[in-house]
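Follow-up to my earlier ticket, as requested here are the two runs.
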Amino acid sequence: MAALIEIERLTKRFGGFTAVDDVSFAVDRGEVLGFLGPNGAGKSTTMRMLAGFMPPTAGTARICGADVVARPVAAKRSLGFLPEGAPTYPEMTVTGFLGFAARIRGFRGSELHDRVANAMLLTQLEGVRLQPIETLSKGFKRRVGLAQALLHDPPVLVLDEPTDGLDPNQKHEVRDLIRRMAPQKAIVISTHILEEVGAVCTRAIIIARGRVVVDAPPSVLEREGQSLDDVFRALTLGPPPADGAAREAA
């Protein structure tokens, strides 16, 4: 059975600059992949290509078997995407925006109402449901973005900094939600928060200079007395691999 997310030799160039360089990996149902890297490493560009929001220069990405370029509608039906910055329509209320997103997804009537209500329940937005999004804190705006990604209960979630701007209690709630959803989904989380990887991820990929430098469970990366922070710094501050190959921890 094919993985729910398949990325093969994905590459993105902007003129003479290569932002993502021959990246390949797959994510199965039940996996939560932490996608790590310093600023400018190519994380967000990879996730935008996976979500079909940016065409690759070369390579392919598939969601539930659907190529994101050749079959974009089929791929996006199976995807919940929280992009960087969680863009919304700020003048809309929370309920209005989620209802708008649900209609785009094809929901109508009582099913639309139920989908919106469940997404707000999962992300604990009921208390601000009638507020314009522009009046919300950064953390609540992030939760609105997460709610729209969950509306259609997709098998694949791609979440760029899902706990950015949340307070410690809110971070705990979102991480607990991810753990509860994980058995039925393939989830990719891009984050700068290394503790988040240890808390919710079953696997970690570190990308530097557009290339995968390690792909292993967090418990493997932290062995021999090294913290994940130590491993991250060593891999992202050091020189690139001589042969350009990705390193895999045994």
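Run two:
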Amino acid sequence: MHIAIIPDGNRRWARKRGLPDWKGHVYGVRTMEKILRKALDMGIKYLTFYTFSMENLKKRPKLEKRHLFNLLEKKIKELADDEEIHKRKVRVRFLGRIYRLPKKLREAIKYAEEKTKKYKKFFLNFCIAYDGRDEIVDAIREILRKGIKKVDRRVVKKHLYTRDIPSPDLIIRTGMKREKRLSAYLLWDSAYSEFYFTSTYWPAFTPRMFEKAVEDLKRRERRYGR
């Protein structure tokens, strides 16, 4: 099973408590760690988080980005050295235009990917400096560069960031009260994904809520366009 998550609401959660925006990301990372443990305990093979979009990279205030990048650098290194990650044989990967990130963060990403690259039991993915439209554009550019003449869905998939990752069975988005959108997340791969929206802000999203979302998926009849 592949569960993908858009962990929205960190800043709004922080503002409601009179905290600076970047503090919301600190609590958001803690929630991410809890959900990862729960997913592993449930035997979910693929877990993908929308960590930081290209829009965030372009538009968020410099101070907030600096705090977030420092936090991510620290937590990614901790993740790479986490005994549980190695005990459970979790491969950690980062998907997106990684070259757009600060050097120290890129180095942390490389460190985590190298330390876990041989694992095949569980797969933990982070979409960072990511946009689903850019992913498709980059795939097309690579196909053109290789001079491939016959292009079908299989060829496109083979050149996506997610080339060896199955499409999500379920996409969970937190922090959604009335509006419901994907925000350019996994556009190619979400064609037949199921969706689960909750108004709960990400820092308040609990492992039990995650479990309920997966239980809801199991009760659905998936038709895949039939």
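The only thing I checked on run two: The chain has one domain: 2-131+168-219. Let me know what else you need.
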